[in-house]
Design goal:
The complex is a heterodimer of chains A (about 190) and B (about 500).
Chain A: H1 6-21, E1 30-31, E2 34-38, E3 68-81, H2 87-113, H3 123-131, H4 150-154, E4 156-163, E5 169-175, E6 183-184
Antiparallel strand pairs in A: 1-2, 4-5, 4-6
Chain B: H1 2-17, E1 21-22, H2 41-46, H3 53-76, H4 79-88, H5 90-114, E2 118-132, H6 135-138, E3 142-143, H7 170-179, E4 186-191, E5 203-208, E6 222-225, H8 229-246, H9 252-257, E7 262-279, E8 283-284, E9 291-295, E10 314-318, H10 319-322, H11 328-331, E11 341-347, E12 357-364, E13 369-388, E14 397-400, E15 434-435, H12 437-443, E16 446-447, E17 459-460, H13 461-467, H14 475-479
Parallel strand pairs in B: 3-15
Antiparallel strand pairs in B: 4-5, 5-6, 6-7, 7-13, 8-13, 9-10, 11-12, 12-13, 13-14, 16-17
Helix pairs in contact in B: 1-5, 3-4
The chains are: A alpha+beta (about 190), B alpha+beta (about 500).
């Protein structure tokens, strides 16, 4: 209870006044003789399916000239789900989509060109390629225990071909500019 | 990751089989899974960049010019030749290796992130709806004789049970103030509605109380708000329709029906009332020409400043000038209304500040009469009418403004914790409502059945609310000198 009852008068006055204000215009929504019934003319269309849940309007649009105020009703449910609502989720999805796009474009290019290869796609295979190549001593000096100079890394190399004495054609690593007659690898050719 | 490596290897192989590739980049296809590879000697040396900052800067500075040149050259070629040139260009190789390294580093965490579910509100039923009436019929700027409800509201005996009358719900208010004492500084009151599909539905009033003794963190205004009955009638009907529609749910909607445990309904487009009441100090009455102080309200400013001692700004008015000198409450001072409160409502005099109506309030004991001048100020606020799981027994509440209250947090704050003067709310209050005498007469009509036994006092609905509740024990206020009601102000 209040220490000071005068407060109560203000409280009751605010309650009484706000109650009256909140009922102004209620009569226009009701059937006159039935104070607790919404006028059937104001009801929505009869629901025959669940499209209301999917966000379909359930009222016929009112003519703007008619005395109606348009309102918007929205309902929500709270729960746990996977969504794209947050910025982090959207960023993550964008990264995955980018990945997907690169992979798809690559696939389309491969199909379009009609060729693919898995040659030299491991360290072992590259090592073997280098081992089977004729050394170019002038190109890579002082590198037996590590690469020190940037210009070593800048050397341009390519994969070429060399015909062995036996007549077999073998692929090898060649340094551009010191190719010693190395040929070009051709598609759909076998190399020893 | 495997597909990115395959693409990078393919590109490196392509370079190695054609014009050649810098030695540093020969193993780049296998290195893109390690981001630190981007600042190794192998990578930078492979593109002819040394690790010195100057060299890196030069390379970055030259990048736009080189890109421009490359594009220019590309434009001169046909599509096929341009494609070939692009694939062979070092710039393209650099772009692919950098992009793939960055992508390879982030793609794992990104997919892990998408596996984490989040909690949030998901939209279900929604529609436009239509409230019958013009703004002047539903939330008029000037309340007059047109806004007092149906004709039945003014017939005798007064229809205090009819919800569409201004005094609708009166019995619920009486029941509330008989039993409940509000909790300072904020209070809420559940106003029950009819059964399902009956209107108006249950609503919860919210308010705050100005405390005179400066104890606690009381609000600097006494105020109240509640949802508009016309808006809630439609909104509640639609919530029932949503339940009905869920009964026919198929496919995704069936999952939505069974999703989560909490619901939130929001209706926007209507207005709702917000009001405050200020009363000045008690003055002893001597006759119809007594000078009584009335509070002066300023629009958008609290009557009393927070932590201020005593009442806010007031102005002393002569009751004769206010035209209330012919009221029987004054004429019959000390007659037969002992211990009863009497109240006279009248439009706000121009000499007072902001507000909607004024009120003269009298209390009498066996020897004296005291008067108190009050001002009420009401606004039509725009905002949301809500029902959530935080609502008391499916009642409707209001919140000014249109900010979505489903911002990822489960709890919807309906309590107006910031009070009447919450800066987020005040921009939505609108101008003070003006009120004419005819509406005030309908606001507090005489209720003959509330006349006091043994005398001829017929109370208005408002006086009956004050006097037939626990508030009628005026002895607490007037006859007990230790009680602060009389003296504090």
């Amino acid at each position: 209870m209040f220490e000071n009852r005068i407060d109560d008068y203000r409280y009751v006055t605010s309650m009484f006044f706000i109650n009256a204000l909140s009922r102004v215009g209620l009569m226009y929504q009701l059937v006159y003789a039935h104070d607790t019934v919404l006028d059937p003319l104001l009801l929505s269309k009869t629901l025959t399916d669940d499209s209301f849940i999917s966000g379909k309007d359930i009222y016929d649009k009112r003519d703007p000239s008619e005395p109606f105020i348009q309102g918007r009703f929205e309902s929500y449910k709270w729960g746990t789900a996977w969504t794209m609502a947050g910025a982090t989720q959207q960023a993550a999805a964008a990264i995955l989509c980018l990945h997907l796009v690169f992979a798809l474009v690559h696939t389309v290019v491969l199909i379009y060109l009609g060729r693919s290869s898995e040659a030299w796609d491991s360290i072992n295979e590259v090592m073997l390629l280098a081992y089977n190549s004729i050394p170019r001593p002038g190109a890579f000096q002082n590198c037996s225990s590590g690469i020190v100079h940037a210009h070593t890394l800048e050397k341009k190399i390519r994969i070429g071909t060399r015909t062995q004495d036996s007549g077999d054609v073998q692929s090898e690593l060649v340094v551009c500019g010191d190719e010693n007659g190395a040929g070009r690898i051709e598609v759909n050719e076998a190399y020893s | 990751m495997g597909s990115l490596t395959a693409i990078a290897l393919d590109l490196v192989r392509y370079h190695a089989l054609h014009e050649g590739i810098n030695f540093g980049l020969i193993s780049s296809g296998l290195s893109i899974s390690t981001p630190s590879w981007l600042w190794t000697v192998d990578f930078l040396g492979g593109f002819g960049v040394s690790l010195s900052p100057q060299s890196t800067k030069t390379m970055i500075m030259n990048l736009p010019a080189r890109t421009k040149t490359a594009l220019k050259q590309t434009r001169k070629l046909g599509i096929r030749a341009a494609y070939s040139a692009m694939v062979r260009s070092k710039l393209f190789l650099c772009f692919v290796l950098v992009a793939f390294t960055l992508l390879g580093t982030t793609v794992g965490p990104a997919s892990a992130l998408l596996f984490i579910p989040t909690q949030h509100w998901i939209a279900s039923a929604r529609t436009y709806f239509y409230i019958r009436g013009t703004p002047d019929m539903l939330w008029p700027e000037v309340l007059g004789s047109n806004h007092t409800g149906v004709g039945l509201c003014s017939t005798s005996p007064i229809r205090i049970d009819m919800d569409s009358c201004l005094n609708g719900g009166w019995k619920k208010l009486v029941a509330a103030v008989e039993r409940i004492s509000p909790i300072l500084p904020g209070w809420s009151l559940y106003i029950a509605g009819g059964s399902a599909y009956q209107v108006p539905p249950a609503r919860t009033m919210y308010g705050g109380i100005l405390a005179l003794d400066d104890r606690g963190n009381a609000a600097p205004d006494t105020w109240a708000t509640v949802a508009h009955a016309a808006v809630t009638s439609h909104a509640d009907y639609l919530s029932h329709q949503a339940t009905f529609a869920f009964g026919m749910a198929k496919g995704r909607n069936r999952r939505l029906r069974d999703f989560g445990t909490k619901d939130l309904m929001i209706a926007t487009g209507g207005k709702f009332p917000v009001a405050r009441v200020a009363c000045s100090i008690l003055t002893e009455m001597h006759g119809p020409d007594t000078l009584v102080p009335f509070p002066i309200l300023t629009e958008n400013v609290t009557w009393r400043l927070p932590f201020q001692q005593g009442p806010g700004l007031s102005k002393i008015l002569n009751l004769t000038d206010l035209g209330v000198d012919s009221w029987d409450g004054i004429i019959n001072l000390n007659a037969t209304t002992e211990m009863q409160a009497r109240v006279k409502w009248f439009p706000l005099p121009e000499t007072l500040g902001s507000g909607s109506a004024a009120m003269l309030y009298l209390v009498q004991n066996h020897s004296r009469t005291y008067a108190r001048g009050c001002v009420v100020e009401g606004w039509w606020a725009t905002g949301q009418t809500l029902q959530s799981s935080q609502s008391v027994i499916f009642s409707w509440s209001v919140m000014p403004g249109f900010k979505p209250h489903r911002d990822g947090t489960e709890d919807i704050n309906l309590e107006w914790e910031g009070g009447l003067r919450d800066p987020r709310f005040t921009p939505y209050y609108g101008k003070p409502i003006k009120i004419e005498q005819e509406w005030l007469d309908a606001l507090a009509p005489m209720i003959p059945e509330s006349s006091l036994a043994g005398n001829d006092l017929v109370m208005t609905s408002f006086e009956a609310l004050l006097n037939q509740t626990y508030l009628n024990n005026l002895d607490m206020v007037l006859n007990n000198p230790t009680r602060s009601g009389l003296h504090l102000e």
